[in-house]
Write a structure and sequence with these properties.
Blueprint: E1 6-11, E2 16-22, E3 27-28, E4 44-45, E5 56-59, E6 62-65, E7 78-81, E8 84-88, H1 91-94, E9 101-110, E10 113-122, E11 128-130, E12 132-134, E13 136-139, E14 146-150, E15 157-161, E16 164-171, E17 176-178, E18 189-192, E19 198-203, E20 205-212, E21 217-221, E22 228-235, E23 254-256, E24 261-270
Antiparallel strand pairs: 1-2, 2-3, 4-12, 5-6, 7-8, 8-9, 9-10, 10-24, 11-23, 12-22, 13-22, 14-17, 14-19, 15-16, 15-18, 18-21, 19-20, 20-24, 21-22
Length: 272
């Protein structure tokens, strides 16, 4: 996909955005998946976001194993068109997630924006609990000060403890984060109930602005030496340290009624 400003490449494996090229500055925006550091670009997280306690959940008294961030990122999605990809439930997915679903991922270029929409359809006869989210890695040079600016000062930032969220302890949030390695020594930084509708990423100069509305959670994550930064709108969250394991009681779970669908959208504005 391309227009006057951007060229986007999507891999049907995971329906993953693997390149977003700024044609005005001749720069790659998306992290290019160095396997020695982090071998992904911008995975789609479904049917969970984050880690489950002991990597399992319980639904109707039955236990299901499900790996961190779910299976959508590791499965081939059907390419419907250059901007639409589809993943349907199957016997493989039902071993881990016993629901009839269709996950559609749409990409649309508009000037210097790429709009990403996830459409989750419940084709079953019961409520479907799920989470969905983005995990977009933005490429950095590592040669300039890195900062993230929120539209509004948020209530607090939470940390992970063995992959689980500890909501009992919030650190002070800032309007502008001047980021260093030490910010990620305890894994991701997690924000809850955002007031902001945009977040800006600067490496000296402005690189991108993420636009979104009504996201219950937002994550920031990086690796040592900050070769990339992930900015992550989430409609769901990892299990908490106090999780019961019952997926219907999971913090942040989406509950989709039978034979209905919901859409979840965010946009990346590239500074040109």
């Amino acid at each position: 996909m391309e227009n006057e400003f951007l060229r986007a490449t999507i891999n049907p494996l995971g329906a993953e955005l693997i390149s977003l090229y700024n044609k005005k500055t001749n720069e790659e925006i998306i992290w290019q998946a160095d396997k020695a550091i982090w071998g992904r670009h911008a995975p789609v997280l479904f049917p969970i976001v984050g880690k489950l306690k002991d990597d399992h959940y319980v639904y109707l008294d039955k236990r299901y194993q499900l790996c961190q961030h779910g299976f959508a990122r590791d499965l081939e999605h059907t390419m419907i068109s250059e901007n639409e990809y589809e993943l349907k439930s199957s016997e493989i997915t039902k071993k881990h997630f016993p629901f009839d679903f269709i996950l559609k991922t749409f990409y649309r270029l508009e000037k210097n924006f790429i709009h990403i929409t996830y459409r989750v359809e419940n084709h079953g006869d019961e409520i479907m609990p799920f989470s969905i989210g983005a995990h977009t890695g933005f490429a950095l040079t590592g040669n300039a000060p890195l900062r993230v600016e929120f539209e509004h000062k948020e209530a607090g930032v939470y940390r992970l403890k063995n992959g689980l969220v500890d909501f009992s302890n919030a650190n002070r949030a800032e309007l502008v984060w001047n980021l260093k390695d030490e910010n990620f020594k305890n894994d991701a930084m997690i924000f809850k109930n955002l007031k902001s509708k945009w977040v800006k990423l600067y490496e000296e100069d402005l690189l991108v602005t993420l636009h979104f509305q009504n996201i219950p959670f937002f994550g920031m994550w990086a690796k040592p030496n900050l070769p990339f930064l992930c900015l992550e709108p989430w409609w769901g969250i990892a299990d908490t340290t106090l999780s019961s394991g019952n997926i219907m009681e999971k913090v942040g779970i989406q509950a989709l009624a039978a034979h209905t669908y919901e859409e979840y959208t965010y946009s990346i504005e590239v500074n040109i």
